[in-house]
Every structure is written in C-alpha cells, then in structure tokens.
Amino acid sequence: VIPAEVDVFDEPDIIAAEPPPAVAPRKRSLLGSIFFGAFGVLVSLAVGLWTDQLIRDLFARAEWLGWLAAGMAAIAVLALVVILIREFLAIARLAEVEKLQKRALDAIARDDPKAARSVVDELSAFVSTKPETAAGRRALAELRGEIIDGGNLVRLAEAEILGPLDARAKVMILEAAKRVSLVTAVSPRALVDVAYVVFEAGRLIRRLSELYGGRPGTLGFFRLARSVLAHLAVTGSIAVGDSFVQQIVGHGLAARLSAKLGEGVVNGMMTARIGIAAMETARPLPFSAAKRPGLGDFLSALTSFATRKDGATTPSGK
C-alpha cells in the first residue's frame, strides 16, 4: 500500500509551530584551509620575487632608482605590518565584546559577586575612552561597595555606564531609518533603494560598534556584519512578520501615506531591524536592566516623520 502524500500546508501543527533556530554552518574543511594557505604563501612568494627583480633592474639602470625602490618597498612592508596589527587588535576587541556578554550573562545567572565585579571592571576599562560614560563610571565606583548581589551590580553598571550610549545608539538607528525612507521615496529605481539600504546598514553597523568602543577595522567590520546577519537569522528579525504588518495597520500608515513614502517606511523599518541587531551585537553587556528597543519604538517616530513629509509634498503636487 502506497501511503497518501502528506501536504505540509494542511498540517496545523507545522504551520503554527515556531521556526527552529538556524543551524550553524559547517566549518571549512581541512583541505580547503590547506589550499588557501598554500595559495596565499605562493602569491606572497611571487610578489616578493617580482619586487626583488624590479629593485635589481632599477639598480642596474640607475643606483638612485634602486635605492628609491628599496625605500618604497620597505615603507610598503612597514605599512602592511601596521595595518595587520591594527586589524588583529580590532578583531581581538570584537572578540572581547562577545566574551564580556557571555560572562555578564553567567554572572547574572549565578548571582556571583566576584564574577560581577570582574565584569564591571572590564566594562569600565573597555569604555574608558568614551566621555559619555565618565559620570556613570564615577557613580558606579561610589556605589560599588554598597551592592552585594552580583546580578544587581551588573545591572547597575549597565544602567549607569551604557545608558547614555544606548540613548545615542537609538538616535543613530532612527536617523539611519529616516534617511533610508527619504531616499526610497525619491529614488526612481528599486535597485537604488536596495543599494542605499545596504550602504546605510553597513555604515550604521560600523558607527554603532565605534559608539560602544569596538573600533572595527576592515576585517573586523566583515566579522561584525556576519555576526549581525547571524543574529538576524537566529532571531528571525530579518523577515517582516505579521506583528510588523499589524503595527503598520494599527498606525493607519497605509491610509495616510503615498505609495512611495509607504515603501520608504518599510525600508526604514528594515534598517531599524538591522540597527537593533547591530546594537545587541556591539553592546558590551546583554540587555538586562534596560529594555531592549523594539520596532514599535521606531515605527511611531518614523510614521510621524513620513506623515509630515507627505503633508509637505502634497500641496506642491496639486
């Protein structure tokens, strides 16, 4: 007997179930790592031999040209070493953020005062170059001896030290969403919309990381962007779900705005989603004392902004 074909769309349990977390990608195979490593060494040797032959040829033509080429090669090598060191430090700093987040969660879960003090000390050192955190660090130093519970100490550090940075981060996300909504409203092609959203999202990710003390370089930025995309995939925030549609309908956005400005608000909210994910990724501590920003917080402001813009452009179009 051949069993009847099962249609997954007729199964209510499958339809109503929450999507499982994204599966982590498989690690690169050993053969692939060997290939790219050997190929990189081969390219480096080829560049070195070419540079050596160039310098020899210039010495044969004119001695001063040979010395000039040798000096330029030395400067290039020195600059490359400095760049690599900076990239390594930037990646190490991003890794420090991830470790600090995990240690803070562990200190809160176990309510360990010793672990909490270690987390607070590391957090204060991490953001010590940020003038916005100076008042919070002073207040925390004054109250630190009065707090016994480890979880409360971490939450106090989050509120006092990261509070001003969180406020600035929300402003950055809202400003980026506004810019995306305006560009979408005036751009003639969908390709322009997509390109600007990608550009603005990349700039927002970098700015948020710098705000929280990350200072990502080129390689560090790509690692941070990958972490943000992974966060979006795991939380499901990259898709516009029913809750987002309900918020738009609840605000009467579809009835109040023109089609282009409505598209602008949707693209702006997608930018806000990316910004929220970047904020959680770049933030040295997880959200515990402070409330995690939601899309509704940005939707109200973005809707009011788009409504004013639509009202300002409508009379001129009549």
DSSP strand content: under 5%
Radius of gyration: 26 Å
- Give the distance, in angstroms, between the N- and C-terminal Cα atoms: 70 Å
Class per helix and strand makeup: mainly alpha
Largest sheet entry: none
Helical content class = over 70%
Tally of alpha and pi helices: 12
Task: Please tell me the total number of domains.
Answer: 1
Reading the helices and strands in chain order gives: HHHHHHHHHHHH
- Note the overall shape: globular
How confident overall, as mean pLDDT? Answer: 80
The count of strands amounts to 0
Instruction: Outline the low-pLDDT stretches.
Output: 237-242
Molecular structure report:
This protein has twelve helices and no strands. The longest helix has 48 residues, at 63-110. With 318 residues, it is mainly alpha-helical. The protein starts with 11 loop residues before the first helix and ends with a helix. It has one domain. It has helices spanning 12-16, 30-61, 63-110, 113-126, 134-143, 150-186, 190-211, 218-235, 242-250, 253-256, 259-282, 295-317. Helix content is 77%, strand content 0%. α4 (113-126) packs across α6 (150-186).
Q: SSE layout and pairings?
A:
Blueprint: H1 12-16, H2 30-61, H3 63-110, H4 113-126, H5 134-143, H6 150-186, H7 190-211, H8 218-235, H9 242-250, H10 253-256, H11 259-282, H12 295-317
Helix pairs in contact: 2-3, 3-4, 3-6, 3-8, 4-6, 5-6, 6-7, 6-11, 6-12, 7-8, 7-11, 8-11, 11-12
Comma- or semicolon-separated keywords:
0% strand; 77% helix; mainly alpha; 318 residues
